[in-house]
Design goal:
The chain is about 30% helix and about 20% strand. With about 240 residues, the protein is of the alpha/beta class. It has one domain: Metal-dependent hydrolases (TIM Barrel, Alpha-Beta Barrel). It starts with 8 loop residues before the first strand and ends in a 22-residue tail after the last strand. Bound molecules: zinc ion (ZN) (2 copies).
Length: about 240
């Protein structure tokens, strides 16, 4: 089977510009080279208030060229609410794909995109328990917000899609085919890659196969927070369709 993510790429690698990661971009570059990768996307966490992005991009752009290794950039931001607002500085979003901007924004389901802003998994669980939110309604809101964020960003990548579901007591089995198809249509229309994420082990086989069949570009990612993890795929090696 073809069309799976190439394991010679790692499309989601954090550096110490993220509070919770430890390696420098140079260390991640060396690890990518040692792992024989052909592509690395260097990414760090942002919020609306983040100011370090120009410094991060300058550091990445100053890295020495490595033969056969393509270095891409990005910022990772959560989807804030059901309108698809993105938790990144507006000027960073406006500069995506520009010569002095980051290449893409990685859209993350770190929180549930509620109608009035991000809901923690605990809040979602409470609302599911008291019946003010249904599982089907939660899934529809999550997918619809993601589709809206994809269109708003223009240049996105889906980070660990559906990693939120287990945290709110749901699974990918709760996502109906028509919502997967709506998501696939949005990412295909915008040329948005979708990660198969080693750290979060998602998405699973049904979602991968349906997205792939719709022509979605799947990319491999480790979500490494330390250079030793760059390009290391224990789980993904067992996933069908990788090359
Ligand atoms: Zn994330
Ligand atoms: Zn990440």
């Amino acid at each position: 089977m073809t069309g799976g993510p190439s394991l010679r790429g790692d499309h989601h690698v954090h550096s110490a510009f993220s509070d919770d990661a430890v390696s420098t971009p140079a260390e991640n570059l060396a690890a990518a080279r040692a792992a024989g990768l052909d592509t690395i996307r260097m990414v760090d966490h942002v919020r609306v208030s983040t100011t370090y992005v120009p410094d991060f991009l300058a550091v990445v752009r100053a890295l020495p060229a490595v033969d056969g290794l393509r270095v891409l950039t990005g910022v990772e931001a959560k989807i804030l609410d059901s309108s698809g607002a993105i938790d990144a500085p507006p000027e960073v979003l406006a500069a995506l794909g520009a010569p002095d901007g980051a290449d893409r924004v990685l859209l993350a389901d770190h929180q549930f995109p509620g109608p009035d802003g991000p809901w923690s998994p605990r809040v979602v669980l409470e609302r599911l328990a008291d019946g003010s939110l249904t599982p089907a309604g939660a899934v529809e809101t999550l997918v619809t917000a993601t589709v809206r964020a994809v269109h708003r960003a223009g240049r996105a990548q889906l980070a660990h899609p559906f990693s939120l579901l287990p945290k709110i007591g749901l699974s990918e089995d709760d996502v109906p085919d028509d919502l997967l198809d709506a998501l696939a249509a949005a990412v295909v229309a915008t040329g948005t890659p979708v990660e198969v994420n080693e750290k979060w082990r998602c998405p699973g086989p049904r979602v991968r196969q349906r997205l792939r069949a719709a022509g979605v570009e799947l990319v491999a990612s480790t979500d490494a927070h330390v250079a030793d993890d760059v390009g290391r795929y224990a789980w993904l090696r067992g996933v069908e369709g990788h090359v």
